[in-house]
């Protein structure tokens, strides 16, 4: 179970293994929805929600029960989505990722840019927390995270971990990044790279001796890099492609797929930067990255559809799920209709 929904004009429901399960037949009224979704808010939080009509925050009932909450208003009234967050700090070895040694190698760098990407609900936040946890245990550095909101609390182990929440501790991702550069960080983990200023500062920081890890809502490595570069105006394209070619360490793309036993499994794509990849990025020829990943298997790279096919051949996902996540004709031909 991952999300609880309390919405005016609808039955209360939860999401279980991606399917909806209703908790009762009662239709929540407009008044009930507003009361249910604001009863745990402090006065300033409630005022902000009622003023902005949208509100994101982290809710901690106790050490074992944490939620990422989104409140909004829709045509029938107030609505709230409560995503359950694990109380345990995730371990990178327990996520179900392929080529974990390759991912750990990317974390061994002391500068550069690493991207964690995937669609909404693909587990990017959990993976980012696991990467920070791995660094926290393996190194003695200063880690600054910028999140919206802070979901998984990280205690300082080998590193000093400073966690900042957009809204509560800083105005925006970009303003937090600007401030972070004056706070003597070694590593910066950014909850979302989504606007020009944030992306520009992340790339700049990765070039000036910091390891920067950020997430994006993209489906594969080539789309990720196109999205990263396309936010810049044409006059900056040559310069920014050169900067990314030099600073990029790797891209980890992931998807969560329904498994045959009613659970979930993780499929992933990994691109690690090498001279061939850097040359393609510098020239803006992202369509060639597929060939780089196909020939880079020995370096720990993998394609998303190959990861999907491994899950299918291992009997972990159905043929239908495999077909939905494969686009190449030659690979599709291996899946029975």
Give the tags.
13 helices, 337 residues, seven-stranded mixed beta sheet, alpha/beta, 13 strands
Describe the model.
The chain is an alpha/beta fold and 337 residues long. It is 35% helix and 26% strand. It is built from 13 helices and 13 strands. Helix 6 (196-207) packs across helix 8 (237-247). The two termini are 31 Å apart.
Give the overall form.
globular
State Rg: 21 Å
Helix share bin:
25-40%
Helix and strand sequence: EEEHHEEEHEHEEHEHEHHEEHHHHH
Number of strands: 13
Overall SS class: alpha/beta
Strands of the largest sheet, in order across it?
9-8-10-11-7-12-13
Biggest sheet character: 7 strands, mixed
**Number of DSSP helical runs:** 13
Low-confidence segments, given as residue ranges, are none
What's this model, at a glance?
This protein is α/β, with parallel strands linked by helices and 337 residues long. The protein has helices spanning 30-38, 43-52, 100-106, 124-138, 173-180, 196-207, 221-230, 237-247, 275-283, 289-295, 304-313, 319-324, 329-332, and strands spanning 3-7, 13-16, 19-22, 54-62, 65-74, 77-85, 112-117, 142-147, 160-165, 187-190, 211-216, 248-258, 264-272.
Give the topology, please.
Layout: E1 3-7, E2 13-16, E3 19-22, H1 30-38, H2 43-52, E4 54-62, E5 65-74, E6 77-85, H3 100-106, E7 112-117, H4 124-138, E8 142-147, E9 160-165, H5 173-180, E10 187-190, H6 196-207, E11 211-216, H7 221-230, H8 237-247, E12 248-258, E13 264-272, H9 275-283, H10 289-295, H11 304-313, H12 319-324, H13 329-332
Helix pairs in contact: 5-6, 6-8, 8-9
